[in-house]
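Standup notes
- DV: blocked on the single-chain target, sequence here:
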Amino acid sequence: MNPLPAPVAAHGNVSLQGEPAKLAGARLPRRLLLLGMSLLSLAALCIMSIHAWIAWKLAYPGIARLSVNPLEAKNLAYEEIVFPGFGGTAMSDGWWIPSGDSAKTVVLSHGYGANREELWVPMYDLAEILHRAGYNVLMFDYGYASEKFRHPATGGHREALQLLGAVDYARQRGSERIVVWGFSMGAGTALQAALRHHEAPIDAMILDSIFLPSKETLTYALENRGIDLPAKPSLSLVERFFTLISGTRLADLPVERALQTDYRFPIFLIHGTKDAKSPPMLAEHIASLQTHPASRLWIAENALHEMIFRMHKEEYLARTLSFLAEAGV
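- DV (later): unblocked, structure below
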């Protein structure tokens, strides 16, 4: 039997027994780096998705369908109406509730997250009271609340044109005196629309729980809802996504102009001390700039956002109807 050959020493590129362990050890930091980058990317995607979802919900809030109508709710005769926004922009639909041959009309400007029926303000009760007081009433839906002419919310940009379209419609129906009565975002929209007062004259405004989409007001609303998002970058991210979805930059809204204007017609500002969505100081600031002798301010004690009518009904009606009489509308 031939003996086995003696072992030969390894030379050249032949791998040694411990080399695979060394290579595996070298790959481990790279794998950890890739894993860390993947987790960071996933976290960034989640953050972006959350802010995009918030922006989408702001542009397309969930709105309940109309439940009844003025005839069913209060036995008020009405007409189904359709009219263009000011300058021939997007169409709007609503109800015209005539009061005989009256030449006075109140246009009701509903709040964000609701339609012309509102959720917190008993709008049909208000329409009935105004009708009995000799006012025609125009109720309509902003685009984000419309079942027929749906479009995203724009923070007051397109909505102001819709409101001016409603004012113009009332003029065409023979109205000589027009009051805009707005709630929350509908009140803020009214103030933005009033900057174009010379194009569609308004004779007086009642602004209940006014909300304007400034960064300060948005931060205040988020904080009071327990959403502790940092202003940077959260609000900036939401604003960017909102622009992509709605086609409107919040920074382009005339909010600062609206906050610094002395309007030519009387304005009655109503706000609650316990408003968690819009600070009372907002109404106080706007009121402080008004020089029309009939303009006034009422800060209702312990009242919540848009709940002043329900919480102080008798005083609310006494003050508002007194204002309309003093303002000559």
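- Follow-up: Strands lie at 79-85, 89-97, 104-109, 136-140, 177-183, 204-208, 267-272, 296-300.
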